[in-house]
């Protein structure tokens, strides 16, 4: 069972769920919360009574804590070193690079799209955000909210079993980047990606060199010649993140590793356009489950050999 020896360990755990949740450590510790299982078993109303500021924050804490505390699989809070996950990561990459995870386009009903888009907006910008204008996290432009879509990092249609290992659900806000609609298709096709740098910085990399060489109307992401952001303007810039939250590093790291591999296979890297480096630290997370990863790799290897 994941036990918190003191308030600082609880603070570190909450920060791993969301960098801004560490402020809840004081009130939770005061209410004698000393383990992840207590958080996973709590109700939304209980956490609100403890001092959590919104139902959405409470739901996120409960969901992540349940993922951490699934029976005997509950991951130890001491597992914080990214190098411990590296052997699994390398074995995992050998499997996924055989073609099990491929670029896919978004597919969901209009109502479902709107549901998780609204949840992501509330998660990133708060429940009282002005919804008439939303800032694109990639370009930094404030645009009509109808022009913003919820771009999934881990794609719909990919193996759902891996999501448990990653400590995330498909439509979790941490698996979503709020971006202008014109960006999503090329993100889905791995023409650009997001690489985590440290715990809070995320750098955009345009992998398809053709996008950097566009001229005229096509060079503008918004499609409006003479104004807006060009593809070359976002290359190697950081995401424009709100103060409340950021996407999961491990999800962005997975997308980046796959996208860079795909770009290399297409010959997109040369002397002028070098392949970006993806750090293994992207996989460090309090909700990374080492045992579940081993089981997933074992099951996948068995299925691969029998096919």
Short description:
With 307 residues, this protein is mainly α.
Description of the molecule:
- The protein has 307 residues and is mainly α.
- The protein is 44% helix and 9% strand.
- The protein has helices at residues 7-17, 25-30, 36-41, 44-50, 55-68, 82-100, 110-125, 161-166, 181-188, 209-212, 231-234, 249-265, 290-306; strands at residues 133-135, 142-144, 148-152, 176-180, 192-197, 201-206.
- The chain has a two-stranded antiparallel ribbon with strand order 1-2. Strands 3-4 form a two-stranded antiparallel ribbon.
- A hairpin with a 3-residue loop joins strand 5 (192-197) and strand 6 (201-206).
- Helix 6 (82-100) runs parallel beside helix 13.
- The chain starts with 6 loop residues before the first helix and ends with a helix.
Structural category? mainly alpha
Ends apart, CA distance between termini: 38 Å
Radius of gyration based on Cα positions: 20 Å
Number of helices: 13
Relative strand content = 5-15%
- Note the overall shape: globular
Major sheet description: 2 strands, antiparallel
On the 0 to 100 scale, the average pLDDT is 78
**Total beta strand runs:** 6
Helix content bin:
40-55%
- The run of helices and strands is HHHHHHHEEEHEHEEHHHH
Low-confidence stretches: 70-86
With strands numbered from the N-terminus, the spatial order across the biggest sheet is 1-2
